[in-house]
Specification:
Distance between the termini: 28 Å
CATH class: Alpha Beta
CATH architecture: 3-Layer(aba) Sandwich
Largest sheet: 4 strands, parallel
Low-confidence stretches: 1-26
CATH superfamily: Response regulator
Number of strands: 4
Mean pLDDT: 88
Helix content: 40-55%
Order of helices and strands: HEHEHHEHEHHH
Structural class: alpha/beta
Length: 212
């Protein structure tokens, strides 16, 4: 899929600047989590940053993981993201900390185990932490954020009625499968799924509201 599929899309350099941001502890914004921060989360963060930028949203998006620090993305990730016009080779993995999660306006996990990790690392992040698929499901239930409503208000409505017991186990309804170790096609399929998911999230959370 080429960059031309998005009106007003970022240039390659701008997309790289978004996706490669390591962030600093205490910085607000969106944190995307996976296991090692070399595959799913950097792809999702880069794709979401691009979608938000196309909408004029300036919220920073960064990624992190539960283990591994300083590792480069898988070569397959670099190749697949290049097909989206996004340079990600200079990304390096980082381990998420409570200082990353506490100020985040949104924590997006690729799977339930990453959400559990976030909720244990920073319990106060629980109302703002979801798997990507879960937030879309709940967002579709309550409808897109209307003009004038703060993002925090929409997220609070999406969080209503959640139980921590929902974090138990694994679920294809919540988890984006890890393509690590698979063929290039698996990475491409995961990137395509993530692009569709973040596009839908951007539509629900930002496209119909004042961009803040």
């Amino acid at each position: 899929m080429a960059m031309s599929d998005i009106d007003g899309v970022l240039s390659i350099a701008e997309a790289h600047a978004q996706s490669d941001s390591r962030g600093v502890p205490g910085e607000a914004g969106i944190v995307v989590l996976c296991t090692a921060n070399v595959c799913r989360s950097p792809m999702a963060a880069a794709l979401l940053a691009r979608r938000l930028a196309a909408l004029g949203v300036t919220t920073p998006v960064r990624s992190a993981g539960m283990n591994c620090d300083g590792d480069p993305p898988h070569p397959e990730v670099v190749s697949v993201m290049a097909s989206y016009g996004i340079e990600i080779a200079s990304h390096r993995s980082r381990i998420v900390s409570a200082a990353d999660l506490a100020p985040a306006s949104l924590v997006l996990a690729m799977a339930r185990d990453h959400l559990r990790y976030a909720a244990i690392t920073e319990p106060g992040a629980w109302p703002r932490a979801f798997t990507l698929k879960e937030l879309i499901r709940r967002g579709e239930r309550i409808g897109p954020r209307p003009p004038g409503e703060p993002f925090s208000g929409w997220l609070s409505r999406a969080h209503a009625g959640r139980a921590r017991t929902s974090l138990l186990g694994d679920s294809p309804d919540d988890d984006v499968a890890d393509p690590a170790g698979g063929p290039l096609r698996a990475y491409a399929d995961t990137a395509g799924l993530l692009d569709r998911l973040v596009t839908r999230l951007a539509e629900l959370g930002w496209a119909h509201a004042a961009h803040r």
